[in-house]
Amino acid sequence: MYAVFETGGKQYRAGAGDTVTVEKLDAEAGKPVTFNRVLMVNNDGKLTVGSPVVDQAAVVADVVEHKRGPKLIAFKMKRRKGSRRKIGHRQDVTVVKITDIQAGGKPAKAKAAKKTAPKEEAAATADEQAESKE
Question: What's the number of domains the chain is made of?
């Protein structure tokens, strides 16, 4: 079972027991946090897709730690001018461990395939066209 949820303007796919690094959350380490913006839930092959969110679905997680992400370097340079600019940035992130996925709502309906004409009719029309050309 896994779910796709949204937090901090980003979407994450996670199952129970997974550890996910998300944007900084206002929760203490060791405390539970609930993500209510669940976009999709796959429960053993039963796919539930929200429009835009799945009703009564939630992803429950425990906050493991708060830390800083990897350093990103922004380097700008103009050739032949001696102009260079180097800036580093580290984003604050929160590491959470998914403990439970609560699924709700109705499963997604499979789209009905369009009905096509039987092959016999298509073959008959091809024969008629061949005879009319002669």
Answer: 1
Apex 29 CA angle, 28 and 31, nearest 5: 70
The backbone torsions φ and ψ at residue 84, rounded to the nearest 5 degrees and listed phi first, read -140, 150
Domain enclosing residue 70, as ranges: 2-107
Residues 25-34 have pLDDT tens digits of 999 999 999 9
Alpha helices in the chain (DSSP H): 119-133
In tens, the pLDDT along 54-87 reads: 999 999 999 999 999 999 999 999 999 999 999 9
Residue 127 counted as domain residue: no
Quick check: 55 and 104 in contact, CB under 8 A? Answer: yes
| Residue 9 covered by a domain | yes
